[in-house]
Write a structure and sequence with these properties.
By secondary structure, the chain is an alpha+beta fold. Helix content is 22%, strand content 41%. It has one domain: Alpha-Beta Plaits (2-Layer Sandwich). The strands form 2 sheets. A 3-stranded antiparallel sheet has the order 1-5-4, with helices on one face. Strands 2-3 form a two-stranded antiparallel sheet. It is globular and about 45 Å long. The mean pLDDT is 82.
Length: 88
């Protein structure tokens, strides 16, 4: 068994200079469900992860994420699907 995970970030609906509007959590969950159905993987677990100052899947895999006390932080609720990947 090969354990792996896939993160689903809220999609950006509208991006402005001072703010960004993201899709609601149920829409992000629906995209995760679509991926599970299409990929036919064996799901181990699904969780929401709240991460500061990340905007991409690559950022979410960092092990040292910091927030500063002097500046504002943006927190993102990400849907993480843990699944069993077929052996090669």
């Amino acid at each position: 068994m090969f354990l792996d995970y896939k993160d689903f970030f809220p999609a950006v609906l509208k991006s402005g200079f001072f703010s960004t509007e993201h899709e609601a959590l149920p829409a992000t969950v629906a995209r995760a469900r679509e991926w599970v159905t299409a990929s036919s993987v064996r799901v181990i677990s699904v969780e929401t992860v709240v991460l500061p100052n990340v905007e991409s899947v690559e950022d979410a895999s960092e092990t040292g994420i910091r927030t500063g006390g002097e500046s504002s932080s943006h927190w993102y609720q990400v849907v993480r699907v843990w699944y069993e990947r077929p052996s090669a």
